[in-house]
Write a structure and sequence with these properties.
The chain is α/β, with parallel strands linked by helices. About 30% of the residues lie in helices and about 20% in strands. It contains 19 helices and 28 strands. The longest helix has 18 residues. The termini are far apart. The relative contact order is 0.09. It binds zinc ion (2 copies). The site of one zinc ion has 8 residues, from loops.
C-alpha cells in the first residue's frame, strides 16, 4: 500500500442506538491516527465531533467513504482504557458506543475549534490553582486502631498481584473519610491520580473541604452537574492532561480520562444517585469496579450500610471486607427508641404527628440547648387536598397522581410533571368552601412543631426550601452555627453532614417502606435510618445521651430490631435470605423494558410484541403499568426480564434490542422505549 493512500478509520459519533448508526462509522484519513484521537467528521449535512475508535474498520467493498473533516491536534488522544470502559458500558447497558462516548465528554468540546481548544489547553495549565506547597504538610489526625488496621490491610492488598476491590464497612462517625484521605495520599505519593466519587456534591461540602485542606499542595478538581460548561471543560482537561492529582466528582466523573489513575474511591457506595436514570442507565459504582479491574488499580467502596449487592460479593470473597466497627473517640452510637404508635392514645382533634414521649424528648433537648432533627420523607404541606362533601381530591389532570398542597405559596403542585395551580377557594366539583389537607408533609410538620415547641427555632431543609442557588449552603450553615434548634427535613438532612450539637434524630412516619412493592424499599429505609441516626452524637462528649427515635405501628418488625442493635450484618443476612428465597438480586439479574406511549394499550401492545419476539434463556414477566401509570399525559408500562445468569441476560439483551428496534414502526403512538439493566426501582 502506498504511503499516502488514504486509510480507513472507525469513528464513534453521537448517534443513538435507535438511529441504526449504533456502531462506529468508517471514514478515510490521509494519515494514521491513534485510537482515541478527537476528530470532526461529516454526517449527512452536519459536521460532528467524533472519536477514532479502536479496532479494524470493516471496509465494505463498493461503499464510498467520506474523508475526515479535520483532526483535533491540540489535545492528546483519549486513553485506550477509556475507550475500553465506554465500549463495555455501552454494550452492558444496551446503548451505542458513540452515544455514550459523546454524552460523557464536556459539551464544550463539540463547540470549540482546534485553535480554541489549544487556547483552553494553555489556559488550563495556567489557570489551574498553583498548589500552595506548605513547608510543613497539613497536620494529620492520629489514626484509630481500626483505621490503622484497615489501612495496613489495604496497603498489603494493593501490593499484591491483582488490584483489590475493598468494601469498607464503617459505622457513621468511624472515620471512613480519613481512610480515603490516606489511601489517596499513598496513590499520589506513587505519582498517580486518584478518582473520588461522591453521591451528590452539594450535600457533601465538608468532604470537599477536607480534601482541599489535606491536599493543599496538590491540584484537585471537581466534576459535577453544578459546574458551568467552561468550568467543566477546564476541570476535565486538567484531569485528561494529567495535571490534576485528584478528581472529586459525582457519577459522571467515573468516565473521566485519567492517564495516571492509581485509585478509585466510592463514598456511600449504596447511594441510589450513582445510577443514571435516563439515557444510558449506568451504575457509576459498578463501572468504578469494572474500571479498577481494567486499569489494575485498587477500588475502595465505602458505606455504613453497603448495598446488598456489594455486601454479598464481600460474603463470597469477591470483594475484601474491611470494617470500622467503632466510632472515633469511642463515642457510642445513639440509642434507638421505638415508639409504638398503636399504644399512643388517640385524642380527638389532636394530631399524632409527634407522640407525647417524643415531644417530651424534643423539649428536653431544647431546654439543654441541644439540636434535634425530625425526618419525614415527604415534602410539601400535605400530599392531597380533599373535599369532605363530594369526595373531590386534588388529582393532576396530566398524571395518575395527586397534586401536593404547598401552603406557603398556596399552590397545588404535581411532583411528577410539575403542573402547578393556585389552590382553589372552593371545591371545583361542588363548590364546598371547606376543602382540607389530608396527611402530612415537611411544611405541615414544621408548622406543627413551631406550635408544639413555642420559642424554638424550627427550620426546614428539603427540595423546596433549597431551590435557589446557595440556599442549601446557607441553611446548613445556620444549623452548624447553632441558629436552629429543630431541623425538619427529608432524606436530604440525613446525608453526610457533620452537625456537632445534634443529640436527637426522630423519624416520625417511616413505616410505608416496610410494605412497599419495590423489593429494595426496606434496604433503602434501613440505610436512611442508619444514616440519619449517624447525625446524632457526632461529638463524642454528647454521644452518651444521643438518641434515635422511630415512631412506628410495627415495632416488632425485624428491620427495626436490627436498627436497635445497629446491626447491619443481621439486617443484611435476613434481607439476603428473603431475596434468595424469592430469586431476587443479587441472586438473579434483572432488566426492565419500559415503554411510553399515547395510550396504555399501545404501550402494552409493544411490550407484548417484544415478549413474543424474545428468544428463550430468560424469564419474561407479563407487561404491567408502572406504579404511576401516567406522567405528563404519557402512559407508561414496563416488563421485567430475569435470569439467574448475568452473561445469559447480557446475551439475551444483545439479541433482543435489534428486534425491538424492528418492532417499533408497527406500533404507532409509541413515544419511546428503553432497557434499564440492573434497575434500582421496580
Ligand atoms: Zn366537593
Ligand atoms: Zn402531573
Amino acid at each position: 500500500m502506498a504511503a499516502n493512500s488514504p486509510r480507513v478509520l472507525r469513528v464513534a459519533v453521537e448517534a443513538p442506538q435507535h438511529s441504526g448508526l449504533g456502531v462506529p462509522l468508517d471514514y478515510l484519513s490521509d494519515r494514521p491516527l491513534p485510537a482515541g484521537s478527537l476528530v470532526r467528521v461529516p454526517l449527512g449535512q452536519r459536521e460532528l465531533l467524533g472519536i477514532v475508535w479502536p479496532g479494524e474498520a470493516a471496509a465494505l467493498p463498493g461503499i464510498e467513504l467520506r474523508p475526515l473533516a479535520s483532526v483535533i491536534t491540540s489535545l492528546p488522544p483519549l486513553p485506550a482504557a477509556w475507550c475500553a470502559l465506554i465500549e463495555f458500558a455501552a454494550g452492558y447497558y444496551q446503548r451505542s458506543v458513540g452515544e455514550l462516548a459523546l454524552s460523557v465528554l464536556p459539551p464544550e468540546l463539540r463547540k470549540l475549534s482546534d485553535a480554541q481548544l489549544a487556547k483552553r489547553h494553555t489556559l488550563t495549565e495556567k489557570r489551574l490553582p498553583e498548589p500552595t506547597a506548605p513547608a510543613e504538610p497539613a497536620p494529620r489526625p492520629v489514626l484509630s486502631a481500626g483505621q490503622a488496621e484497615v489501612l495496613g490491610r489495604l496497603e498489603a492488598l494493593s501490593a499484591g498481584v491483582a488490584a483489590p476491590v475493598a468494601l469498607l464497612h464503617g459505622v457513621t462517625g468511624s472515620g471512613k473519610t480519613e481512610v480515603y484521605l490516606r489511601a489517596v495520599q499513598d496513590a499520589l505519593a506513587a505519582g498517580r491520580q486518584a478518582l473520588v466519587l461522591v453521591p451528590e456534591i452539594n450535600l457533601t461540602p465538608q468532604l470537599e473541604a477536607r480534601f482541599a485542606e489535606r491536599f493543599a499542595d496538590r491540584r484537585i478538581v471537581s466534576l459535577h452537574s453544578g459546574l458551568t460548561p467552561a468550568q467543566r471543560l477546564r476541570h476535565w482537561l486538567a484531569a485528561h492532561l494529567g495535571l490534576a492529582d485528584i478528581v472529586l466528582g459525582t457519577r459522571l466523573a467515573v468516565f473521566t480520562p485519567l492517564p495516571r489513575l492509581g485509585l478509585i474511591a466510592v463514598d456511600e457506595e449504596h447511594d441510589p444517585s450513582y445510577k443514571q436514570q435516563e439515557g444510558a442507565r449506568y451504575s457509576a459504582r459498578d463501572l468504578a469496579v469494572y474500571r479498577g479491574r481494567l486499569e489494575s488499580v485498587p477500588v475502595l467502596l465505602g458505606s455504613a450500610t453497603p448495598s446488598l449487592e456489594s455486601w454479598q460479593r464481600a460474603e463470597e470473597g469477591r470483594y475484601v471486607r474491611l470494617s470500622l466497627p467503632a466510632r472515633i473517640g469511642d463515642g457510642g452510637l445513639p440509642a434507638v427508641r421505638l415508639v409504638n404508635m398503636g399504644l399512643v392514645p388517640a385524642q380527638k382533634g389532636v394530631s399524632t404527628a409527634i407522640s407525647p414521649p417524643l415531644l417530651e424528648a424534643l423539649q428536653q433537648r431544647l431546654a439543654r440547648g441541644e439540636q434535634s432533627i425530625v425526618l419525614l420523607n415527604r415534602r410539601g404541606y400535605a400530599p392531597v387536598l380533599h373535599c369532605g362533601a363530594c369526595g373531590w381530591k386534588s388529582g393532576c389532570p396530566h398524571c395518575s397522581a395527586w397534586r401536593v398542597f404547598h401552603k406557603l405559596d398556596r399552590t397545588l403542585r404535581c411532583h411528577h410533571c410539575g403542573f402547578t395551580e393556585r389552590v382553589p377557594r372552593a371545591c371545583p366539583d361542588c363548590g364546598n368552601l371547606d376543602i382540607a389537607p389530608i396527611g402530612r408533609g415537611t411544611e405541615r410538620l414544621e408548622e406543627q412543631l413551631q406550635t408544639m415547641l413555642p420559642g424554638a427555632r424550627v427550620a426546614r431543609i428539603d427540595a423546596d426550601s433549597t431551590r435557589l442557588r446557595g440556599a442549601l449552603e446557607a441553611q446548613l450553615g445556620a444549623v452548624h452555627a447553632g441558629e436552629v434548634d429543630v431541623l425538619v427535613g427529608t432524606q436530604m438532612i440525613a446525608k453526610g453532614h457533620d452537625f456537632r450539637r445534634v443529640t436527637l434524630v426522630a423519624a416520625v412516619n417511616p413505616d410505608s417502606a416496610l410494605f412497599a412493592s419495590d423489593f429494595r424499599a426496606p434496604e433503602r429505609l434501613f440505610a436512611l435510618l442508619m444514616q440519619a441516626a449517624g447525625r446524632a452524637g457526632r461529638d463524642a462528649g454528647q454521644a452518651e445521651r444521643s438518641e434515635m427515635w422511630v415512631q412506628t405501628w410495627h415495632p416488632a418488625h425485624a428491620l427495626y430490631a436490627a436498627l436497635r442493635r445497629h446491626d447491619f450484618a443481621a439486617f443484611a443476612a435476613s434481607q439476603l435470605e428473603e431475596r434468595r428465597m424469592a430469586g431476587l438480586p443479587p441472586y438473579s439479574h434483572l432488566a426492565l423494558l419500559r415503554a411510553e406511549a399515547r395510550t396504555i394499550e399501545i404501550a402494552r401492545a409493544f411490550l407484548q410484541a417484544a415478549s413474543e419476539a424474545a428468544a428463550e434463556g430468560v424469564t419474561l414477566y407479563p407487561p404491567v403499568p408502572m406504579a404511576i401509570q401516567r406522567v405528563a399525559n404519557v402512559e407508561r408500562a414496563q416488563m421485567l426480564v430475569e435470569s439467574a445468569s448475568r452473561p445469559a441476560l447480557q446475551r439475551f439483551l444483545g439479541r433482543w434490542a435489534p428486534l425491538l428496534q424492528a418492532l417499533r414502526p408497527a406500533h404507532k403512538g409509541l413515544i419511546r422505549w428503553a432497557i434499564d439493566v440492573d434497575p434500582l426501582t421496580i
